[in-house]
Amino acid sequence: MDIDPKESFVRWQTATRKHFTATSNLVLGLATGLLVFICDRGFVHVHVCSFRVVVSTTAVLLLIGSIALGLLCSINRLRDFRATAQVARRRMKGETMQLADREETKALGDKSWRLLWWQLALFGLGTLTTAIAVAARAWSETGAPPWV
After folding, report:
1. What pTM did the predictor assign?
2. Which of 4, 50, 52, 77 could serve as a FRET partner for 109 with CA atoms 20 to 30 Å apart?
3. Integer Cα distance of 59 and 55 in angstroms
4. Domain limits, the chain
5. 58: alpha, beta or left, given left = phi > 0 and alpha = psi -120 to 50?
6. What is the distance between the alpha carbons of residues 66 and 130, in angstroms, rounded to a whole number?
């Protein structure tokens, strides 16, 4: 059984697009949930030690940044899909394609990947700082390190 390389590429490109979207949406949902956890549990209070305030505030800002990048990534992907659809429509009608149109879709695709990586990085840092805030809170309430 011979597999057409073009057909294989299209199939893998479709799978990549689906996983890209699923990953971005998953991180967006997790960041939102973690942000609600931090705010609901009262981690950011001025009356507690300054270290906890700084760590909690940093976590909140990192998670808000991750959420914002996730939303920007989603909007950018929609712009990319729209531009790609217009190029495909022109090709279907037999019209000549402009190099600028192809460059625009490539730039939008590259920007989507950069936004996703930054979204993941900010989420990872936000998760780390949240864990530190939780540990610091447990430490201050019990008087001992949380691992003891």
Report:
1. 0.82
2. 4
3. 6
4. 10-142
5. alpha
6. 14
